[in-house]
Design brief:
alpha+beta; 23 strands
Length: 383
């Protein structure tokens, strides 16, 4: 965070007099602290009160991410009855039960009216009769043409009749393809008749049941009502909140399991698999914070109990060894040409000297300085 300097205005005559005093003497006078606006020119000076000071220090710098995580399962199966006129008879599983592919989850039946079934049956019969009639007519025409061909002796006439027969054969083959839709209608009618009695709803994959809706038993069901939900307990990611965007895609983190942050029994390596820097608009939680997902190896998922333990995430987001650091309160900003430059006030022998610095990283608390200062120097906090 950059701080703007607050200028202290004094009468011009006073400033001029003080400037002459400062330029003509090497002493600050009884320890009085002088503020030099331009260090290189020895320009206007001003008597100032005492300022709070900080020291330029050298230390290893780290920014640490630490927060709790929760499991978000990625392989969840929701089971519905995608039939009209369905009535749920019973649910055969319970919460936390492990199911396998093919296990019966529920039983239901269809209550299609007899009138509707009879109407569909009649439609199918009429369509079948029409199809068979058309096919029979085409076959009779073909048979007659084949008989005529046998009675011909003229080569030209036989050639013409042969072409006619081939054309009729192609027409029959094309006509037969239309039977596919009719067969589907007949199968659907047979299925509706069959499903008037108990019909089993089976699992298409394995997992652990997470919810059932027994209130639906005995009720008419539509395709939007979820009957059973189950999940694969081995397929999940760890979800964390990252409001300051400290976690980056493919970054390695420490995943700790235990009762609390200070009492962790196990630690494994995790990897960030989604992050806000991967897509400009990452997902967010209810507080509009970035939501980040972390994965661990399949071996660790099987070895440790992530479901019943608390999950803690620890990561070093940024690190600089042997960094030169100053308190951010001592750093201000000044426009020079078309750019803003970072500036500090160095306290030496009771005088304040303005100093431009180069910082390659900063946050609200500290600036990491690459040029302009040395360890141990004292800076005044001028606001």
């Amino acid at each position: 965070m950059l701080y703007m300097w607050k200028a202290k205005w004094v009468p011009l005559a006073v400033l001029a007099a003080l400037a002459l005093t400062a330029c003509g003497s090497n002493s600050s006078g009884d320890g009085e602290v002088l503020l030099y606006e331009e260090e290189v020119s020895g320009g206007a000076v001003e008597a100032v009160e005492e300022y709070e000071t900080v020291t330029v220090r050298r230390e290893d710098y780290q920014e640490v991410y630490s927060d709790t995580g929760e499991l978000e399962y990625t392989d969840i199966e929701s089971v519905y009855i995608n039939e009209e006129d369905a009535v749920l008879d019973s649910i055969k599983v319970k919460r936390d039960q492990r199911v396998r592919k093919g296990d019966v989850l529920a039983v239901y039946h269809l209550e299609t009216s007899k009138t509707k079934l009879e109407k569909q049956k009649l439609v199918n019969q009429q369509a079948r009769a029409q199809f068979e009639s058309g096919l029979g007519s085409l076959k009779n025409s073909l048979s007659q043409a084949e008989q005529e061909y046998k009675s011909l002796s003229n080569a030209a006439e036989k050639k013409m009749k042969s072409l006619e027969i081939k054309k009729m054969q192609k027409e029959i083959e094309a006509y037969k393809k239309g039977e596919k839709e009719l067969l589907e209608q007949e199968k659907e009618y047979a299925r509706l008749v069959r499903m008037q009695s108990a019909t089993k709803l089976v699992a298409k994959k394995g997992g652990v049941v997470t919810s059932v809706d027994r209130d639906l038993v005995g009720q008419d069901i539509n395709s939007s009502q979820k009957i059973v939900e189950f999940r694969n307990n081995d397929k999940w990611l760890i979800k964390v909140s990252d409001p300051e965007s400290m976690l980056r895609y493919n970054m390695k983190v420490k995943v700790r399991l235990g009762k609390n942050m200070k009492n962790c029994q196990h630690e494994v390596t995790g990897k960030v698999v989604t992050a806000s820097d991967l897509t400009d608009a990452g997902s967010a939680d209810q507080d509009a914070n970035n939501t980040i997902y972390i994965d661990v190896s399949d071996a660790d998922k099987k070895k440790y109990d992530f479901r019943t333990n608390n999950i803690y995430i620890h990561a070093v987001s940024f690190e600089v060894k042997d960094a030169l650091m100053v308190d951010a309160r001592a750093v201000g900003s000044e426009s020079v040409g078309f750019t803003n430059r970072s500036v500090v006030w160095v306290l030496e022998n009771g005088n304040l000297h303005k100093r431009f610095i180069v910082s390659n990283y900063n946050n609200e608390k500290d600036y990491l300085v690459s040029q302009g200062l040395s360890e141990g120097q004292t800076l005044a906090i001028v606001e």
